[in-house]
Amino acid sequence: MLPRIILENLQRIDPDAQFTGNLPKAQSSTGQTYFVKSGSPSESEQYLGEARSLEAIGTAAPGLAPAMIAYGNGEDGTPFFISEYKDMAPLSSGASDLLAKRLATELHQYKSHEGFGFEVPTFCGATRQRNGWYTTWEQCYSNLIGNLLDGLPRREYSALVTKGEKIREEVIPRLLGKLEIEPVLLHGDLWSGNVGVDSLTGKPVIFDPSSYYGHNEADLAIARIFGGFSQSFFESYHNHHPKSEPVSEYNLRADLYELYHYLNHTLLFGGGYARSAERIMNKLLSDMSNL
């Protein structure tokens, strides 16, 4: 059975239709299928962040993500979300190259006039990103890292937090302060689990975004960590969107952007992710001392 709040909003979208199904899928008697979900009032920010992210992606790269149809909160504060439904298949090599091109030439060309950051909080997994607007990428990324460090239990991760603050003080200004870049729209959580192929069209689709406006290279970080993307994907991407200057520091920036996701997974899951985060920190601090 579909929740009442979903049915009420579907009926506003298509008043003459009948609707059946179970979360997260609803079918209309007119033949349309929708992706639907509702949550608890405590999840309102998360629903809003995802909806605003999808709206922005839909403007920047139409059809690359499921189209947002309706979202909001019921009278009791219950959030709801209705979007286009896509039957998904795994990413193929051909779709991977097209995805690289669309990211490079559409999504990562869509600029913000407000600065770096995002208009509402978004959630990378279950982690709330405070967002807001920043004048520089250095400020924005330092605050993204700081948000994660603030969330780590100090008793358990005091050494990691201390080293993370050193990254904010010594590494981020040196690597990111010199970049001459504009804030472009990022997916924010672009790993293989959030990418697929539309079974009807064969074209790539991205979903479950945690968007913000930042440096395009940051959007490739988690794709490297968890795999699912071939080397040709990254080569194709940079054929369309060359690496930022200084190119000689590209790998250092890649390590710095991967650090965000290792810290986030430490916050979410602990375990070996903390060791990976510390390894990246040690490497960055060592490499920076040799520059």
Describe the structure.
45% of the residues lie in helices and 18% in strands. It has helices at residues 4-13, 44-60, 93-105, 137-151, 154-176, 221-226, 231-240, 250-269, 272-289, and strands at 19-22, 25-28, 33-38, 68-73, 79-84, 88-89, 116-118, 122-124, 127-129, 132-134, 184-186, 195-198, 204-206, 212-214. It is of the alpha+beta class. Strand 1 and strand 2 (25-28) form a beta hairpin. Helix 3 (93-105) packs parallel to helix 7. It has 9 helices and 14 strands. It folds into 2 domains: 4-85, Phosphorylase Kinase, domain 1 (2-Layer Sandwich), CATH 3.30.200; 89-289, Aminoglycoside 3'-phosphotransferase, Chain: A, domain 2 (Alpha-Beta Complex), CATH 3.90.1200.10. The chain has a 5-stranded antiparallel sheet, sandwiched between helices. It has a 3-stranded antiparallel sheet with strand order 6-12-13. A two-stranded antiparallel ribbon has the order 7-10. The chain starts with a helix and ends with a helix. The longest helix is centred in the middle third of the chain and has 23 residues, at 154-176.
How would you sum up the major sheet? 5 strands, antiparallel
What portion of residues is helical? 40-55%
Major beta sheet, strand line-up: 1-2-3-5-4
Instruction: Compute the separation of the termini in Å.
Output: 61 Å
Task: Report low-confidence residues grouped into runs of 5 or more.
Answer: none
CATH topology of the largest domain: Aminoglycoside 3'-phosphotransferase, Chain: A, domain 2
At a glance:
The protein has two domains: 4-85, Phosphorylase Kinase, domain 1; 89-289, Alpha-Beta Complex (Aminoglycoside 3'-phosphotransferase, Chain: A, domain 2), CATH 3.90.1200. It has nine helices and 14 strands.
